[in-house]
Amino acid sequence: QIPTATDFELPDYWDEGEVLQGREAWPVCVTLNIDLPASYLDATSVEEAATPLKLLLMFSFPPSSEPQLQGMRLLGPGELQLAQMKQ
Question: How far does CA 50 lie from the centroid of its chain?
Fold first, then answer.
């Protein structure tokens, strides 16, 4: 783990058609927008502003095993029960 935030820039090779090596192993954060009883991914900016709760899930992808949940954070007012998360 990195103890502090790090900012860096990646060279842009998009125009030449090169993709960055190792991208399959990069961590991914998925935002689940929760507006009970519904929840949805890929919110527009208007939907995101109108959604009271957001559940952030951070995954890593080790090369020789299943994806692993590395972190979870609930943003917004209120609470979310485990039974609601399982739905």
Answer: 19
Q: Which of 33, 36, 58, 28 is nearest to 48 (CA)?
A: 33
The pTM of the full predicted model, rounded to 2 decimals, is: 0.66
CA pair distance 63, 66, nearest whole angstrom: 8
Give the residues across from 71 on adjacent strands. Answer: 58
Question: Looking at residue 15, what is its pLDDT?
Answer: 67
> Rounded mean pLDDT of 33-39?
83
- DSSP code string of 2-70: -SS---------GGGT---TTGGGS-EEEEEEEETTEEESS--HHHHHH-SEEEEEEEE--TTS--EEE
